[in-house]
Design a protein that fits this description.
The protein is built from 7 helices and 4 strands, in the order E-H-E-H-E-H-E-H-H-H-H. The chain is α/β, with parallel strands linked by helices and about 200 residues long.
Length: about 200
């Protein structure tokens, strides 16, 4: 099966959406191809976003700040999923995307807006990194091929809202377990995520 294409959107495309792009390309295991863009791109990736990725030993080559209309042009990758990671982008009028991508809002506080010492700013980027990583781990562990459109949308919204107890609920768990071993792997990520406060417990 060809990898599913995923686009992360925010306003400036310099921090949160960049982190998400790099993280999904890591955790996607070849099943996903991640991209990012912004409604009003800054034109440069935030230095602390790059430093955070480098500290986690993730590649940064090719990451750039760009406008979301780039992905609405003929010949652009046909997106399967589109996630907004900031409130402003979620409220703005998006381009008309080819196909029918599944959309969800995964709001994350903007680490670039934090004022204070350099160490405080670094901690803000690290928190954003961990929060996005937790959601992406849950997303990549979903048995996508066994979820209908309504169930998929419900699960994606639950991940964004931190309501992880609802994941895969009421969707023939015995059959899913039998046909897709390992899809319950998200549970091993859930405990530390809630414990460390990265995703609020529902």
């Amino acid at each position: 099966m060809d990898p599913r294409d995923v686009l992360f959107l925010c306003t400036g495309n310099s921090a949160r959406s960049i982190l998400a792009e790099a993280l999904l390309n890591k955790w996607g295991g070849g099943r996903f191809r991640a991209f990012s863009a912004g409604s009003r791109p800054k034109g440069a990736v935030h230095p602390l976003a790059l430093a955070t990725l480098e500290q986690a030993h993730l590649p940064t080559q090719g990451l750039r700040s760009k406008g979301w209309t780039e992905f609405a042009q003929p010949g652009a990758p046909r997106m399967d999923f589109i996630f907004t990671v900031c409130g402003n982008a979620a409220q703005e009028a998006c381009p008309v995307w080819p196909g029918r991508p599944v959309t969800a809002h995964w709001g994350v506080d903007d680490p670039a807006a934090v004022e204070g010492t350099e160490e405080e700013q670094r901690r803000a980027f690290h928190r954003a990194f961990l929060e996005i990583e937790a959601r992406i781990k849950l997303f990549t562990s979903l048995p996508l091929e066994h979820l209908d459109e309504m169930a998929l949308q419900e699960n994606l919204r639950s991940i964004g809202a931190g309501k992880t107890r609802n994941l895969l609920h009421k969707r023939r768990p015995a059959e899913v377990r039998a046909t897709a071993p390992g899809v319950w792997a998200w549970r091993r990520f859930l405990a530390p995520v809630v414990t460390e406060g990265l995703v609020p417990a529902s």
